[in-house]
Write a structure and sequence with these properties.
Length: about 650
C-alpha cells in the first residue's frame, strides 16, 4: 500500500498511527512496514510535536535496555547439575529406575511463559535469580515460536499452563552479528531485554519448550507431546534406556555441527514424573536431570599479550596470546579478539584470567574475563605494526592511515584477489617479490605483467614465467560475483556478492546502490550494507583500473538488447524498496519482456519508478520526487499499481 503521507492532515495522521499501532501491538497483524510507520510518526512530529498520540507509541528504536517489572516464579527455576564423563553419568543413573529422555542442551536464556485458562499468553519472564525474574512479555510476543494462543480447555481448564523453555538465536541469524557479539547467547540475552519490542522482533529469536508445570502429566514424553500439540517447538528428544546414555551422547555430539543452534551438552531426564518426585531436588538443581557437557570445549587460561595484525582492508585486528589451553583436543595459544571495540568491552588486561571456548568445537573464542588481574589495560596501537604509520579508530575498528601504502595490507589485498579469481602459480612469496620490485601495486597490475618483468625475479625461469603470464591472462573474463568479491571489501564475501549480483545484475547498478536499499534485502543488515557501500566507493579507482583488463561475464548487461516492441517499448523503469509480490529480478524480467528497459538510476530519462510495497524506498524515491517537483517526466508507481499494469 502507498500512504499519501505528505497530504495527510494532523487528524488523519493521528488516526492512522493509532490504528497501525493497534494492528501491530495488539493484533500482531501489521499492515504497513516499520519504515512507513516511522514516516507517519515523523510527519506528525513535524506538524504537531505536542500531539498526545506521540506519547502513546513506544520510544524510538534503541539498544538501551529498560527496567523490567519483577515477577516471582511459581516454583524456583533451577539450573542443571553437570557432568563430564561416562563414569559420572553412570553413577548418577544408578540412583533411579526406568527410561530417560535425552535432548541436546541449547545454549540460550531460560524463560518461563504463562497462558491463562483461555489459552492466551499472559506472561513471559526471564529466569533472573531463579526465584524472581523480569517481565519480558511484550518482547516475547515478538518471537514467532511463542504462540499468542494455545488451545484452551482440558487438560488445563482450571488454571492455565506454565511452560518453561529456552529463548535462543539460531546460528544462521547470528551470522550477521558475529563481528559485534561474542556469541548467540549473549546477543539473545540482550535482545529479549530491549526497550522496544520491535527491536526484539528484528533479532529473530527462537524458542523451544522443555517443561510444562502443574498439569499432573505422567512423563516427560507426555509433556513433549503436549507441547507439540500447542505448536510450541521442542528440541529433538529421545526416549532411551540407561544403557544407551553414552551412545546417545555420542550421537548428539556427531550431529552437533549440523544443527542451526549452539549446543553445549546433552540433557538427560528421568522420564517418569513419579520417579522424579521420589528423587527430588538439591538446593540448586533437580536430582532427576543432569547435563552431560561436551568435553574440553572450554577452559580457563591467562592472557599473556595482544598482538595486532593488519588485514587486507587496512583494519588492525587484535589477536590474544594465551597460555596453551586444551580445547576439544587441540592446544590453543592464539585467539582472535575480533575488533578493538569488542576487546575493550571485555575489559582485558595483561594477565587476565579468561574463559576460552571452542564453540561448535571449531574456532576458539574468548568468552569472558573470569578475573581481571592487575596487569596493564590493553590499549590500541598508536602505530601500524606493519608500516609504522599512525592508526585511527573508526567505530570499533583500528585502521592504518597509510591508505594503499601499508605493505601488509597490500599483500593481503593482492593475495585475496589472486585467491578469489583462482589464478594458479601466484603464491605468497611471488606476490611479495612482485610488490617489492614495484611490478604489482594494485590487482590490475597483474594483468600488465610481462615475461621480462618476471624474469628479473630470483629463481624464475622462462617456462615458469610464460606459464604464469598465461595463467593470469586466462583470467580476463570474470563472473561479476567473483569480481566484486575479489575487491577485498570486508563483508563482501561469497554470500553477499552473490546477493548483489542476483538483485542488481550489473556492476553499474551495484556501484550505485545505497545503504538503505541494500539493507532492505533480507539477510543484509545495516552494518553489512554500510561496509559494502563504503567499500565500493573507496575501491572506485581499483575497479576502474581492473575494468581496463577484465570483461565481466554472467551478468545481464544493463541496456542489453531490449525488445524492439511491446507495451513498455521505449520506457525506462526502475524498482526501489523491497517488492512483496516477487523478487526484483523477476520483476525486471517482466518489464523487459514487455519491451521496457531497466534504468541504472533515477535520472532525467527515467519514466517510471516502481516503489516496492515492502518499504525501504529511500533515496531513489526522494530523488524522483525532486525531479517531479522540477517538472521531470518520472512517474512514481506503487508496486500494486505496477502489478495491475503488467496484468498480475
Ligand atoms: S531441561 C532444571 N532441557 O539449561 C531445568 N534444559 O542449566 C531443567 N537448557 O535453565 C531443564 N537446553 O534453560 C532442559 N534440552 C534442554 C535444555 C535445557 C537448554 C537450559 C535450561 C536450564 C539450563 C540449565
Amino acid at each position: 500500500m502507498t500512504l499519501k503521507i505528505a497530504r495527510m492532515t494532523v487528524k488523519e495522521l493521528e488516526e492512522a498511527i493509532r490504528h497501525h499501532n493497534r494492528l501491530y501491538f495488539e493484533l500482531q497483524k501489521p499492515e504497513i512496514t516499520d519504515y512507513e510507520f516511522d514516516q507517519l510518526v515523523l510527519r506528525l512530529k513535524k506538524l504537531n510535536p505536542d500531539s498526545p498520540v506521540l506519547s502513546e507509541i513506544p520510544p524510538d528504536f534503541s539498544v538501551e535496555q529498560k527496567e523490567f517489572r519483577k515477577v516471582s516464579h511459581t516454583s524456583e527455576m533451577l539450573s542443571l547439575d553437570k557432568c563430564y564423563s561416562e563414569k559420572e553419568i553412570q553413577e548418577w543413573a544408578e540412583k533411579f529406575e526406568g527410561d530417560l529422555i535425552a535432548s541436546p542442551k541449547i545454549d540460550g536464556c531460560a524463560t518461563e511463559i504463562r497462558y491463562n485458562s483461555k489459552g492466551e499468553l499472559i506472561l513471559a519472564a526471564t529466569r533472573g535469580d531463579g526465584m524472581v525474574g523480569e517481565d519480558i512479555t511484550a518482547n516475547a510476543r515478538m518471537i514467532r515460536d511463542i504462540p499468542q494462543k494455545i488451545p484452551s480447555g482440558p487438560p488445563f481448564s482450571k488454571g492455565g499452563a506454565e511452560i518453561r523453555g529456552e529463548i535462543y538465536m539460531k546460528l544462521s541469524v547470528f551470522k550477521k552479528y558475529k563481528r559485534e557479539f561474542a556469541n548467540p547467547r549473549n546477543l539473545a540475552a540482550g535482545a529479549i531485554k530491549q526497550k522496544d519490542p520491535r527491536k526484539t522482533r528484528d533479532y529473530q529469536l527462537s524458542f523451544f519448550g522443555y517443561d510444562i508445570l502443574g498439569l499432573s502429566l505422567k512423563s516427560e514424553g507426555e509433556k513433549i507431546e503436549l507441547l507439540k500439540s500447542f505448536h510450541i517447538p521442542t528440541v529433538e528428544a529421545r526416549q532411551i534406556p540407561k544403557e544407551k546414555m553414552q551412545g546417545t551422547y555420542d550421537y548428539f555430539l556427531s550431529k552437533r555441527d549440523s544443527w542451526d543452534y549452539e549446543t553445549d551438552g546433552v540433557v538427560f531426564k528421568v522420564n517418569q514424573v513419579k520417579e522424579q518426585e521420589r528423587l527430588g531436588f538439591t538446593a540448586h538443581h533437580p536430582r532427576y536431570a543432569i547435563a552431560y557437557k561436551f568435553q574440553g570445549d572450554s577452559g580457563v587460561t591467562t592472557l599473556k599479550d595482544v598482538e595486532w595484525s593488519v588485514a587486507r582492508t587496512g583494519v588492525i585486528t587484535p589477536v590474544g596470546v594465551v597460555d596453551p589451553v586444551q580445547l576439544s583436543g587441540a592446544s590453543v595459544t592464539h585467539v582472535s579478539l575480533h575488533n578493538y571495540g569488542l576487546m575493550k568491552k571485555l575489559g582485558l588486561r595483561k594477565g587476565s584470567k579468561v574463559l576460552m571456548m571452542r564453540r561448535g568445537g571449531v574456532i576458539p573464542n574468548l568468552e569472558s574475563v573470569v578475573e581481571a588481574g592487575r596487569g596493564a589495560a590493553i590499549e590500541m596501537p598508536k602505530k601500524c605494526p606493519s608500516c609504522g604509520f599512525a592508526t585511527e579508530l573508526i567505530d570499533d575498528f583500528v585502521y592504518c592511515t597509510n591508505k594503499g601504502g601499508c605493505r601488509k595490507a597490500k599483500m593481503e589485498e593482492l593475495e585475496h584477489f589472486i585467491k578469489v579469481i583462482e589464478c594458479d602459480g601466484f603464491g605468497e612469496k611471488l606476490i611479495a617479490q612482485l610488490y617489492e620490485n614495484g611490478f604489482v601495486k594494485d590487482p590490475a597490475d597483474f594483468y600488465q605483467l610481462k615475461r621480462e618483468d618476471l624474469l628479473e625475479l630470483e629463481r624464475m625461469g622462462e617456462i615458469l614465467a610464460t606459464k604464469l603470464i598465461g595463467n593470469i591472462q586466462a583470467k580476463r573474463q570474470l563472473p561479476l560475483d567473483l569480481f566484486v568479491r575479489s575487491l577485498g571489501i570486508r563483508e563482501l564475501a561469497k554470500h553477499t556478492s552473490k546477493i548483489l549480483v542476483r538483485e542488481f545484475k550489473t556492476l553499474d547498478r551495484i556501484l550505485k546502490v545505497g545503504e538503505e536499499e541494500l539493507s532492505a534485502i533480507h539477510t543484509i543488515g545495516p552494518v553489512i550494507a554500510r561496509e559494502v557501500v563504503e567499500g565500493l566507493r573507496k575501491r572506485r579507482g581499483v575497479i576502474e583500473k581492473l575494468l581496463r583488463h577484465v570483461t565481466l561475464v554472467g551478468a545481464t548487461p544493463r541496456t542489453g538488447s531490449p525488445l524492439r516492441e511491446g507495451p513498455f517499448f521505449g520506457k525506462k523503469f526502475l524498482f526501489t524498496g523491497s517488492l512483496l509480490a516477487m523478487e526484483r529480478g523477476q520483476a525486471e524480467k517482466l518489464v523487459e519482456g514487455k519491451g521496457g528497459e531497466i534504468a541504472g538510476g533515477v535520472t532525467q530519462d527515467l519514466d517510471y519508478l516502481v516503489v516496492g510495497d515492502g518499504g525501504g524506498a529511500g533515496s531513489k524515491l526522494d530523488k524522483a520526487k525532486k525531479l517531479q517537483a522540477k517538472g521531470g517526466k518520472v512517474q512514481i508507481l506503487s508496486e500494486g499499481e505496477w502489478r495491475k499494469w503488467v496484468g498480475l
